[in-house]
Specification:
single chain, TIM Barrel, 8-stranded parallel sheet, two-stranded antiparallel sheet, 10 helices, 10 strands, globular, binds nicotinamide-adenine-dinucleotide, NAD(P)_OxRdtase_dom_sf, oxidoreductase, NADP, NADP_OxRdtase_dom
């Protein structure tokens, strides 16, 4: 069900499905989407300082009928805040904007060269102090993870990376699995750009589901955490209605054939922001 969780390596349970709120910048957009999602049964919300909507997310959470402790809230430290002291300050500012006293998950948004190890030291401190229940990373290649793991005490619980049928991240996923790091897909729908693919439409017709639901089900059967984004109540519901059908092995393989190792977003080795 929508409340199904994955147990992270530190024992914390994280919902497989959450709402992503990137590009919800208008004052009440994230607030309303969060309320719709929680009413539809979502328990996990993925925001970030750089999305500039943490206040709006916090209001949506408060106005929902679900207590804070039953929700799973993720935010991320932005690139310009990386480093030890600056990360501690950025975390405090995020909590304040969300008006919460802890986060469930805090992520390093991008692996800023020369800084992400100091940033991680601050994340470990926040974790030790109990201000965040789990810490993880985003946009880390295997070489970034190898470097981080060789220099740290705590292992990230998740790596949130661009993942969809065009970019299935098979090699990174295998490495993460060995390290007990869960894979979380950003742009799980390929930002909506894959919904016209024939194979997805055909499989959708066969199962009486939409192409979006077929992609999201493919992720779940790959044991991947997903945070699809929509501001529309009907799509928010649609993106969570994934638990009454199953793709066969053969159908999973048909979707795998869409892979081109092709990104819609930036490469973590060359991003510049
Ligand atoms: P997505 O793959 O979730 O696609 C969202 C878009 O697909 C929507 O804007 C809409 O146009 C379309 N869509 C959604 N549901 C649909 C449906 N049922 N039917 C038809 N069209 C539909 O893209 P995303 O927003 O890039 O990624 C999801 C979340 O991942 C973000 O909101 C954010 O929380 C996170 N993210 C993180 C990073 C990172 O660097 N860590 C980067 C990008 C996104």
């Amino acid at each position: 069900s929508l409340q199904d969780t994955i147990t992270l390596h530190n024992g914390v349970k994280m919902p497989y499905v959450g709402l992503g709120v990137w590009q919800m910048k208008d004052e009440n957009e994230a607030r309303n989407a969060v309320k719709s999602a929680i009413a539809a049964g979502y328990r996990s919300i993925d925001t970030a300082a750089v999305y500039e909507n943490e206040e709006s997310v916090g209001l949506g959470v408060k106005e929902s009928s679900v207590p804070r402790e039953d929700l799973f809230i993720t935010s991320k430290v932005w690139n310009s805040d990386q480093g030890y002291d600056t990360t501690l300050k950025a975390f405090e500012a995020s909590l304040k904007r969300l008006d919460m006293d802890y986060l469930d998950l805090y992520l390093i948004h991008w692996p800023v060269e020369g800084k992400y190890n100091d940033t991680w030291r601050a994340m470990e401190k926040l974790y030790a102090d109990g201000l965040v229940k789990s810490i993880g990373v985003s946009n880390f290649h295997q070489h970034h993870l190898e470097d981080l793991l060789s220099k740290s005490n705590e292992k990230p619980v998740v790596n949130q990376v661009e993942t969809h049928p065009r970019l299935n991240q098979a090699a990174l996923k295998e490495y993460c699995k060995k390290q007990e790091i869960a894979l979380e897909a950003w742009s799980p729908l390929g930002q909506g750009k894959l919904l016209g693919e024939n194979v997805l439409k055909e499989l959708g017709n066969k199962h009486n589901k939409t192409a979006a639901q077929v992609i999201l089900r493919w992720h779940l059967q790959n044991d991947t955490i997903i945070i699809p984004k929509s501001v529309h109540e009907n799509r928010i519901k649609e993106n969570a209605d994934l638990f009454d059908f199953e793709l066969s092995q053969n159908e999973m393989e048909q979707i795998n054939e869409l892979n081109r190792d092709e990104r819609f977003g930036p490469n973590p080795d060359t991003f510049d922001f």
